[in-house]
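Exercise 7. Given the encoded structure of a 107-residue chain, write a plausible sequence.
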């Protein structure tokens, strides 16, 4: 995970190819166990004490995402936050999604 977290997200453009399933699986193995790998996205569920803590974590992730230029989708509710990472320009997963996941794990 530390290798991925040390990297910086790179700008993607329309037509950027997504990772093949084998490459995605290799990068997924470098993440914490809470990230679920889907064919076109990474998803992590956080359970927190209350809405304020969920919103606070979402804010920390949002600020990190702004620094990296790679923005996750959020689903937030009382005591829970779901973070979904995908690269829309690639219509699937890229290195950036795994880099962001590793950085989120460090928060």
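Solution.
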């Amino acid at each position: 995970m530390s290798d991925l977290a040390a990297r910086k997200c790179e700008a993607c453009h329309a037509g950027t190819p997504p990772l093949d399933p084998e490459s995605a699986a290799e990068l997924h193995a470098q993440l914490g166990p809470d990230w679920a790998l889907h064919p076109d996205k990474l998803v992590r569920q956080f359970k927190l004490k209350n809405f304020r803590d969920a919103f606070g974590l979402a804010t920390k992730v949002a600020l990190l995402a702004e620094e990296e230029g790679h923005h996750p989708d959020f689903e937030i509710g009382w005591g829970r936050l779901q973070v979904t990472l995908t690269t829309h320009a690639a219509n699937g997963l890229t290195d950036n999604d795994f880099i962001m996941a590793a950085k989120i794990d460090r928060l």
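Remark. The domain at 35-107 is CATH 3.30.1360.20 (Gyrase A; domain 2). Students should compare their own answers with the one above.
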